[in-house]
Amino acid sequence: MELKPVIGIEVHSQLNTKSKIFCGCKVSYEDEPNKNVCPICLGHPGVLPVLNKKALELALKVAIALNCEIDRITHFSRKNYFYPDLPKGYQISQFTGAIGRNGYIEIENKKIRIRRVHIEEETAKIFHIGDYVYLDFNRCGIPLIEIVTEPDISTGDEAVSYLKKLQGILRFLDASYADMEKGMMRCEPNISISVDGKMGTKTEIKNLNSFRAVKLGIDYEIERQKNIILKGGRIEQVTMLWDEEKRETRPMRWKETASDYRYFPEPDLPPLIIKDEMIEKIKKEIPELPEEKKKRYINIGVREYEAEIISQDLKLTKYFEGILNLYNEPSEVSKWLVSEILSFKDYEKISFKDVVLIIKSVKENKISRLNAKEILRDVYETGKEAEIIMKEKGFEKRWGEEELKEIIKNTIEKNKKEFERLKNGEEKLVGFFVGEIMKQTKGKADPKIVNKIIREYAGFDKG
């Protein structure tokens, strides 16, 4: 029996607009509850929605960036369901039409097909406090973009790779902050197990809001379904919740189908007509996206590993390119960025100028790599400039080979027995002598150069 996981993902992400999708209420994530509301987003009888043009433009930009075909005429529909977070008793969405179709994202040489991209309105936010349920309607009516894949994903790791790529694209386009922890980007994987090529019944995990939860939730659900099938059981079409504490999925409700929502055309919104001129205008506004940046970085000498890490983060690409404007050594800068500077949470506190000075000082053997790490940490923690810290610590002193040779000769003279043992083959004593020299130079000598000179004196590196 061949059991193969089959996974599709629905992503809902809040679009970066100043006002809500069908009314003029402000979009704000910090105001007191229920401040930014009006009769339209509260669903009062007789009100008329008006589409936010900016929301449409951002959704169109995303659809184009995801390589989608653009629907020239599309409609809004009412998706009917009754839940406290939906004051109208229905959600305005798109059902028969979409902004974009048949797109794709490539991950690790695999193409994840995008079935559709459409826009809809956000629901209110629910808070469960003790025995009470509280509703904040500030969120209700914020424009959402929904992106639905074909079932092309096979593992939790692949799902995370896809989501990271998608998040990067949304951020580079400035279409969405896509902050999962704040609920601005939520993921709902649909998981089934194909048995000998025959598609199985799917379950959906609702509202996952971290990459970790996506991976763990999918992997757990795959194993749960496999175990049921292997025991001769039957998978039921259920909407699941991820229990972070117990690390397991649990049923939330029976899975709805399209007919359960009783979709019908939204009578208060006319058909949406997207003209060629609008598409061409949006195409010109699309910036260099992560994959394009990655290729460009590789072409200018950055290793693929570093190029992948840097290109996927908008803030990091700006930081990297800011340093390159002062010091055009892409390979060197990218290595430092990924291996050292990213270890600091708010790395942007370290100025471009300081980063360049530290990298140059190491390259010119003015300081050791160990010294550089110390200086970086001090710059980050104190806010002082690297040049000042280097002077305070005496790191501006440059130990050239001739100066080091003199110190090494004196050290050998004081440790003749150890040096004889070194010459006779005890190579571990190289470390002893390097340590002695580093003590005498207070860590300011380059250990690589010290090591090289000692080995030459011991006769290890001669012809």
TrEMBL record:
Gene Ontology MF: a single term: ATP binding
GO BP annotations listed: glutaminyl-tRNAGln biosynthesis via transamidation; translation
Enzyme Commission number(s): 6.3.5.-
Residue span(s) of domain Asn/Gln amidotransferase: 318-458
Highest taxon of the lineage: Bacteria
InterPro entries: Asn/Gln-tRNA_amidoTrfase_suB/E, Asn/Gln-tRNA_Trfase_suB/E_cat, Asn/Gln_amidotransferase, Asn/Gln_tRNA_amidoTrase-B-like, GatB, GatB_C_1, GatB_Yqey_C_2, Gln-tRNA_amidoTrfase_suB_CS
Name of the top EC class for this enzyme: ligase
Keywords, in A-Z order: ATP-binding, Ligase, Nucleotide-binding, Protein biosynthesis, Transferase
Reactions performed catalytically: L-aspartyl-tRNA(Asn) + L-glutamine + ATP + H2O = L-asparaginyl-tRNA(Asn) + L-glutamate + ADP + phosphate + 2 H(+); L-glutamyl-tRNA(Gln) + L-glutamine + ATP + H2O = L-glutaminyl-tRNA(Gln) + L-glutamate + ADP + phosphate + H(+)
Role noted for this protein: Allows the formation of correctly charged Asn-tRNA(Asn) or Gln-tRNA(Gln) through the transamidation of misacylated Asp-tRNA(Asn) or Glu-tRNA(Gln) in organisms which lack either or both of asparaginyl-tRNA or glutaminyl-tRNA synthetases. The reaction takes place in the presence of glutamine and ATP through an activated phospho-Asp-tRNA(Asn) or phospho-Glu-tRNA(Gln).
Quaternary structure and partners: Heterotrimer of A, B and C subunits.
Family recorded in the similarity comment: Belongs to the GatB/GatE family. GatB subfamily.
Name of the featured protein: Aspartyl/glutamyl-tRNA(Asn/Gln) amidotransferase subunit B
Organism in which the protein naturally occurs: candidate division WOR-3 bacterium
Name of the encoding gene: gatB
